[in-house]
User: Which sequence fits this backbone?
């Protein structure tokens, strides 16, 4: 398994690929699979603004597309003093595909918080309720 430092470093490197043309707010994510692989993502913005996809969802969709189905942790990095937690849409996707992940928040120089996804998304909607 990668150390949490390695996971955060992977998210920092992914952040450098962010396509943050409109907000200039670059985010990187690194998702750890149950068998120890690390799949990264960065935010990708476009001219409609609304079709922007966050770093976390890029990482999840890349991982699913590569055949990964079980996940343990995700590191999220932005260049901010206060940590950048996942948005509501990302919390939903992380929950549905990753379950109660550990969420590691960091900036460019330090780790800034750890959370369980179940604390960030209490009373979730998911397929069990269909
Ligand atoms: N963003 C992410 O990629 N992840 C987050 O956790 C928060 C927000 C992106 C979306 C948009 O490209 C930019 O940050 C500003 O909202």
Assistant:
């Amino acid at each position: 398994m990668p150390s949490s430092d390695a996971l955060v470093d992977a998210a920092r490197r992914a952040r450098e690929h962010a396509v943050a043309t409109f907000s200039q707010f670059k985010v990187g994510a690194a998702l750890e699979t149950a068998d120890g692989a690390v799949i990264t993502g960065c935010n990708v913005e476009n001219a409609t603004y609304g079709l922007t996809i966050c770093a976390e969802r890029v990482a999840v969709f890349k991982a699913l597309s590569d055949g990964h189905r079980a996940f343990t942790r995700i590191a999220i990095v932005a260049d901010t003093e206060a940590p950048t937690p996942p948005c509501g849409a990302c919390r939903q996707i992380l929950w549905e595909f990753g379950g109660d992940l550990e969420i590691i928040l960091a900036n460019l120089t330090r780790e800034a918080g750890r959370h369980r996804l179940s604390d960030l998304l209490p009373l979730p909607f998911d397929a069990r309720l269909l």
Observations:
- The chain has a mean pLDDT of 97.
